[in-house]
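Supplementary Methods, section 5.1.

A reviewer requested that the exact input to the structure prediction be made available. We therefore reproduce it here, unchanged from the version used in the analyses.
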Amino acid sequence: MTIRFAVFFDMDGTLLQTEKLATPAFLRTFEDLKAKKLWNGPIPSEQELTNVLGMTLDQLWETLLPNADHEVKHEANRFMLEHESQLLKEGVTDLYPRVRHVLQELKSNGAELFVASNGLESYIDEVCSYFELKPLFTDLYSAGRFRTKSKIDLVKKLVADYQIEQAVMVGDRHSDIEAGRSNGLKTIGCDFGFATPGELDQADVIIKNFEDILHHIQIPKK
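The structure derived from this sequence is encoded token-by-token as follows.
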């Protein structure tokens, strides 16, 4: 299978307003860890929790649970998934404005759409199912699914697997821009997610609203 043109989307802070979901899920996870006496360190601040969004799982828990053993990190993952699933069903968060409209517009104009996220496979799948996005995506690529060590490796695998000739990487963190640039893709930085000042400076384009993507993606005519 060869794809002429595709758009890759990060999930957290790009499609999904993740802070409304992740922050309470993290806090509940740390409460569980402390209750089970698996962690006696400090509970991270909301800013510290926001800063890890977009990292791979290994990087995330190494940052939040420094020096914790594998069992503790495994339990933290399990708690986190349970709380995110429950919070999602409680309707605590939503997609960014006009996300579904933009995805539908791109797809109807001939672009193949993919998720490229450092998150867990079940988390990405559940978010896309909950918001009924699955029909819009050709595939959902995640570090959790393929055990990739970086976003660069994940995007490289996606490009190779689908023999993609031309693509755009859309995301809100430096890792998204780095992954796109390293794989020869145009990059669009979303300055409405979790990026810190200057983090998106290497992006080809920086947008303030998700809908602005439509002004910066030109889909080749067949």
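The longest strand covers residues 112-117. These observations are discussed further in the main text.
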